[in-house]
Design brief:
262 residues, alpha/beta, 5 helices, Metallo-beta-lactamase, Chain A
């Protein structure tokens, strides 16, 4: 339940220092996550950009905020321009600077404008909407760590949905912030030219073998999945390999709560 009243964002407190900031009024049901340490905070993704997420994070912490980008798709970088310290995986720095590869602005504007169920702010105009572009403050690499002060975050390079996708593991709390690698309800997409079914399955196998995960927080749909969904992930990747389905055009594959679309 949200304890901050806001017309667009819904804030869910996960624990005393972790918050989900959600945009349930849009069909994407995007979640960004604020992780507060002793010395600084990390914001994992910045949402759609329909409204300014900085309004929310300013109410939750006065600490300096580092933005960690799970991947450079328009629905995860919307408010990047409101923060100075933006980090992105090295393979998607070019996307952040020059624009998202293979995704026309007309398609982005159509997607951001459809199936909205809450009033949008007067500053939002889908006809002129444009994803953030800019130079990041820093680069993320596989197995980097970020110390927030008594709270360390581990970066895992998890390509497939996009070349520079990362998952972020909170080593103290056992939370895996999985971006668009693992969530429920709708498929993980790997059917665009910029995606890789083979890389996605390798990334899923890698994350499914992490033994310290207690909860999974994805970029869409449900907030907080029990770690037993990783058993379904393992079962699905085993099935995909056995029947040689890891390629474009094989469609949607599901086991339990977890599914992929190639």
């Amino acid at each position: 339940m949200s304890f901050i009243k806001d017309d667009w964002f819904t804030v869910t407190q996960i624990d005393e220092a972790t918050y989900a900031i959600s945009e349930f009024g849009h069909w994407e049901k995007v979640h960004s996550y604020l992780l507060i340490g002793r010395d600084k905070a990390a914001l994992i993704d910045t949402g759609l950009g329909i409204d300014n997420i900085r309004r929310i994070t300013d109410q939750l912490t006065s600490l300096p905020i580092t933005v960690l980008t799970t991947h450079v798709h328009w629905d995860h970088i919307g408010s990047h321009g409101k923060y100075a310290d933006i980090f992105v995986h090295e393979q998607e720095e070019g996307w952040l600077v020059n624009g998202i590869k293979g995704l026309p602005i007309e398609q982005i504007r159509n997607d951001v404008a459809r199936d909205i169920t809450l009033p949008t702010p007067p500053t939002f105009n889908p006809k002129t909407y444009r994803p953030y572009q800019g130079k990041p403050k820093g680069i993320l690499k596989d197995m980097d760590t970020l110390d927030l002060g008594n709270r360390n975050l581990q970066i895992y390079h998890t390509p497939g949905h996009s070349p520079g996708h990362v998952a972020i593991f909170d080593m103290k709390k056992g939370y895996l912030f999985s971006g668009d690698l693992i969530y429920d309800e709708t498929p993980i997409y790997a059917f665009f030219p910029s995606t890789s079914p083979e890389d996605l399955v390798r990334s899923l196998d890698r994350m499914a073998n992490l033994t310290e995960v207690k909860k999974i927080y994805g970029g869409h749909n449900s907030i907080g999945l029990d770690s037993d969904i990783l058993d379904e992930v393992k079962e699905l990747t085993t099935y995909l390999k056995k029947y040689e389905l890891i390629r474009f055009g094989t469609g949607v594959h599901r086991i339990g709560r977890f599914s992929v679309q190639f």
